[in-house]
Amino acid sequence: MTADEERELLAHLERLRQEHRDLDVAIQALQDMPGSDQLQLARFKKRKLQLRDRIGYIEDQICPDIIA
């Protein structure tokens, strides 16, 4: 992997982490509201899980877990 590719992956990783944090805040706010939209809450949680999986995949590409 070239340095440019790694920088690009790191930037993408940071954007995904920020979106994950933003969803965390949105989910908490939605849960705190009485009568909140459960369908929207489920969508946010699903997106958050997708982001977590994508973050893990990119982290593995940057620093592979190689058993020596």
How many separate helices? 2
Strand tally, please?
0
Please give the radius of gyration in angstroms: 16 Å
Mean pLDDT across residues: 93
Reported for the largest beta sheet, the result is: none
* Straight-line distance between termini: 20 Å
Which range does the strand content fall in? Answer: under 5%
Principal-axis shape: elongated
What is the H-and-E element order? Answer: HH
Q: Estimate nothing, just give the exact number of structural domains.
A: 1
Structural class: mainly alpha
Note the quaternary state here. Answer: single chain
Low-confidence stretches: none
Proportion in helices: over 70%
What would you say about this model in short?
This protein has 68 residues and is mostly helical. It contains 2 helices and no strands. The model has no long low-confidence stretch (mean pLDDT 93).
Question: Could you explain the architecture of this structure?
Answer:
By secondary structure, this protein is mostly helical. The chain has one domain (3-62). It is built from two helices and no strands. It has helices spanning 3-32, 38-62. α1 packs antiparallel against α2 (38-62). The two termini are 20 Å apart. The model has no long low-confidence stretch (mean pLDDT 93). Keywords: Coiled coil. This is DUF465 domain-containing protein. It comes from Ancylobacter rudongensis.
